[in-house]
Design brief:
558 residues; alpha/beta; five-stranded parallel beta sheet; 21 helices; elongated; disordered N terminus
Length: 558
Amino acid sequence: MMHRHSLIRRLALCVLGLVMGGVSALAQAQDPDPLVDAAWLSQALAGQSPPLVLDASPRKLHDMGHIPGAVSADFYSYGSREVDAQAMQARLRSWGLNEGHQLIVIHDQGGAMLATWQFYELHRHGVPLQRLRLLDGGLAAWKASGGKLTGEATPAPQPGNLVVRAPLQDPRAYLPEFLQASGDPAHHALLEALDPPFYYGGAKFFSRGGHVPHALLTPADDFFRPDKTFKSRAELEGLLAHLGVRREQQVISYCGGGVAASVPFFAAKFLLGYPQVKLYQGSQREWLQDPRDLPLWAYATPSLLRSAEWLNGFSNTMLRTYSHSPISVVDVRPRATYALGHVPFALSLPTEQWRTHLAQPQGLRSLLGAAGIDPQHEAVLVSEGGLQPPAALAFALLEHLGQRKVSVLMDSLDDWGLKGLPVVKEPTRLGAKQSALDPTIEPVAYSSVLRPVLVTNAQAAKAEPRAAGLPLVFLWVGAQAPAPQAMPGTSVHLPYGQLLQANGQPKPAHELWTVLSKAGLPRHARIVSVGDEPGEAAVAYVVLRLMGFSDTRLALQP
């Protein structure tokens, strides 16, 4: 009997859970739009239950002209420093916040981070989302709509009675979680809200410039239109999808001190409804103060460039004999040059063999497999040092064929030898292993999934489908600009040599950003690298990959 009652009780609890889950989902689906426009606010202020308007702008700007009745909630009077519940309660009560149902409309000058930060703070300290609104476009939109302004000081509001308890933990990320997320880009998306010069290391707030490993560049300005209103939800969704952000990932935004990060946080969580979004308040300030000396990157994907020390460390006789080296070293120099000396375990596949398969890249599969190049390895390309066109072309072809990872050795063989590393003249042994400890490289079946990297020509690139609203831009890398009719769309001229230093290595990330932005290359576009010579166009393709441009192609012909 007791068992029967227990079973009935469990069934009842399950039913109740399903019902409550449905109610919760319905409530979430009915959450109001957090954005309001100036017309809505004007009408609401004239109504019987006007909202409380909080102006997060600096007090000086507030005093120069504000919405009548708006309470100055100047961010710079309190900052982003964490305070306890009692201090936060006193702050919010001083602005007139009460328990109850009065709506709260937050704004700044428009297209800025102060209103979104205040929205985040109120939400995290327990103000229900149903009561929170953000004036889209801020004071700029209010002015543009003809809304009234006053320079008269708003009378101090009656102290409110809002009760603030312990802040919600769900919206906020802490350093241990953020550190773990930086090492797991498959399941996490880190959004850096700083501007490109900071991301690429040309500027800094603290001791060093650059970005947290695997972070995506999402400056706050990317989320606003020129009129300072938020971009449409479709545009914002397209922006994050273009960067590779997926809804099933844990999304964490950050910046220098945590405030600008509230813009991508607000957009992803409250405008797009991404289910897992947090803001890392510690941001770079805490990251760089950590005694472990946590890294910052300048290039978006620095592992595309390898050094002699790195390659020697992960591809040497001892490791290949007694352990495992998931590295395929591919030497694209002429066979005669290879015979004079090469990196240990390098497999010779001269650039001529790559070029003969440009029309049918899939024909390379049998050649690569027979040469012992494993598609599940990291393929490290060796040429004459730096980012040479032969290595860059092989890089693009391997990525197109679905190689798990591709990189380029930046050191020449002379550099390799000068560093005291071994140089070998005998061809790398290829064939069946004679024993478990035999470092001979075995041929493999080169099986992988193709990626959309190569296109036959510019016209073919134009015909390829792409995300809605994403422009198509051709990056012409030849010495002379193309004729106006040569490109079937928008083109940017940038000779590939301007991307490289005198030694053939890519310029530092912040210099590359200056070159690319000065040329007018947009970040959010499908960019097709093209030139008279496919190897030169491939150099630009690799540089774009290095800089984190997320939708790139290589056209083999103009």
